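Figure 3 (text version): structure tokens given as input.
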């Protein structure tokens, strides 16, 4: 039986750690699986806050009175705020859904890839939840958008880096 050589393990660890950059900086790494501890993003940048960096599977949803979409209000009854309304200047935050036990209502989350995609810092707030998020912690996020067609945007439905902002 061939055992892996120690230098191979070290090289693999170095490659894995360097494969992801944190929040637009070259000095951070993103946690890629539940067994890897998250890293800290110490300094705020133009498009992102200081906080803890995670890798999350992102999807999009839209306000609709269907079982899948869950209605037009967040988990405490306030109107959902869509990404498109934020980009148009009609609202000052964007509603996102996550595991209700992972982050408190109103927690601020930054998504550097979406800030880059839309060319501005976007203020995402955890205000919603659902059955698909139970037990997922910060590994799953659902971004509120205006319509069903907006929910299909490939830039939103993928693995994204997110920063849970310091208070």
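Below: residues designed for each position.
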């Amino acid at each position: 039986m061939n055992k892996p050589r120690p230098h191979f393990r070290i090289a693999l660890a170095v490659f894995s750690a360097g494969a992801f950059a944190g929040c637009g900086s070259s000095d951070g790494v993103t946690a890629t699986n539940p067994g890897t501890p998250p890293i800290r993003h110490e300094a705020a940048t133009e498009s992102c806050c200081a906080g803890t960096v995670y890798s999350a599977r992102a999807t999009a949803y839209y306000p609709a009175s269907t079982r899948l979409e869950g209605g037009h209000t967040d988990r405490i009854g306030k109107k959902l705020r869509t990404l498109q309304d934020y980009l148009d200047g009609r609202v000052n935050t964007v509603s996102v859904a996550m595991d209700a036990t992972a982050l408190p209502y109103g927690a601020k989350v930054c998504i550097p890839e979406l800030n880059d995609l839309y060319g501005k810092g976007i203020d995402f707030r955890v205000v919603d939840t659902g059955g698909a998020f139970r037990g997922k912690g910060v590994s799953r996020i659902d971004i509120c958008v205006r319509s069903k067609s907006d929910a299909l945007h490939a830039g939103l439905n993928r693995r994204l880096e997110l920063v849970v902002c310091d208070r």
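The chain has four helices and seven strands.
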